[in-house]
């Protein structure tokens, strides 16, 4: 089969209109030329959702997703994805495309769609899987980086609400010409980095991921100490796995090693302790 034109849109879960934060949860794809209308959603692994919005009842997400899938079935006329055919009549292709556009139009609901993208494909089903893996499973910055982006946003809001944002510069380079690292929140005293705050996400899928990410920051702290560029006071605000087990033990070991290097670690939820540190 020759390449055919497909349109797709990313489904986003955005429970709070006030913050405009969202997480990619699914994708819909249509190839009107061959009558294909497919969709894939993250409906089993809810940890990504609860990590983004820890205060939200996951049942809200589940119920909303059921409603969205019913809407997709109504628009497409099929409970499951449509079969791919060689060619369809122009009128049917136009009707399918109009239904797709109606589905993904901007609206103020829990689930919204991003802009319509266009891609060429020989196999629409394979292309749908490929896009799902890229935009939903990989999450464009993947778990480690993006979770810390979210933590950083919350921390920035926290500093601002407590009138401390003026005391900290954002994304500052600490180190020397030979070795340096960018820290998200840094307080300078006469041009010297005296305090720094770094969110650290250690609630990973497995212990190996926890050790790798934690060890990277242990190494960074060691190097900054060696060149005498470590801020006098440095705080890691840490998210660790819930409950007990090997993952929790690994996260606690990382925190202990960081404390042994003259830095502090505080659970990300303990805002009073973070506030005590942040005051200058």
Structural features, described:
The structure is a single chain. The chain folds into 2 domains: 137 residues, no CATH class; 136 residues, 3-Layer(aba) Sandwich (Rossmann fold). The longest helix has 20 residues. Strands 1, 2, 3, 4 and 5 form a 5-stranded antiparallel β-sheet that branches. Helix 7 links the parallel strand 9 and strand 10. The protein is elongated, with a radius of gyration of 23 Å. The model has no long low-confidence stretch (mean pLDDT 87). Helix 6 packs parallel to helix 7. It has 280 residues and is an alpha+beta fold. The chain contains 8 helices and 10 strands. 31% of the residues are buried.
Question: What are the SSEs and their pairings?
Answer:
Layout: E1 4-13, E2 23-31, E3 36-41, H1 47-52, H2 58-76, H3 90-104, E4 111-113, E5 117-121, H4 124-137, H5 142-161, E6 169-175, E7 180-189, E8 192-201, H6 207-226, E9 233-239, H7 246-259, E10 264-267, H8 271-278
Parallel strand pairs: 8-9, 9-10
Antiparallel strand pairs: 1-2, 1-4, 1-5, 2-3, 6-7, 7-8
């Amino acid at each position: 089969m020759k390449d055919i034109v497909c349109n797709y849109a990313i489904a986003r879960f955005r429970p709070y209109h006030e913050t405009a934060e969202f997480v990619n949860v699914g994708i819909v794809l249509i190839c009107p030329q061959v009558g294909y209308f497919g969709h894939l959603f993250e409906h089993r692994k809810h940890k990504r959702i609860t990590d983004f919005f820890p205060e939200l009842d996951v049942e809200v997400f589940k119920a909303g997703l059921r409603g969205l899938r019913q809407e997709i079935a109504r628009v497409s006329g099929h409970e499951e994805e449509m079969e791919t055919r060689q060619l369809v009549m122009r009128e049917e292709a136009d009707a399918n495309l109009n239904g797709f556009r109606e589905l993904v139009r901007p609206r103020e609901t829990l689930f919204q769609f991003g802009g319509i993208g266009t891609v060429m494909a020989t196999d629409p089903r394979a292309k749908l899987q490929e896009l799902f893996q890229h935009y939903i499973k990989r999450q464009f910055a993947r778990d480690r980086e993006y979770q810390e982006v979210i933590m950083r946003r919350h921390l920035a809001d926290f500093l601002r609400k407590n009138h401390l944002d003026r005391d900290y510069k954002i994304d500052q380079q600490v180190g020397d010409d030979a070795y340096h690292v960018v820290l998200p929140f840094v307080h300078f005293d006469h041009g010297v980095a005296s305090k720094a705050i770094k969110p650290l996400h250690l609630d990973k899928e497995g212990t190996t991921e926890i050790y790798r990410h934690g060890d990277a920051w242990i190494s960074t702290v060691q190097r900054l100490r060696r060149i005498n560029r470590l801020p006098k006071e440095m705080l890691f605000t840490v998210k660790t796995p819930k409950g007990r087990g090997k993952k929790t033990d690994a996260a606690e070991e990382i925190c202990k090693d960081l404390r042994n290097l003259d830095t502090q670690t505080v659970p990300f939820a303990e805002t009073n302790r973070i506030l005590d540190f942040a005051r200058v």
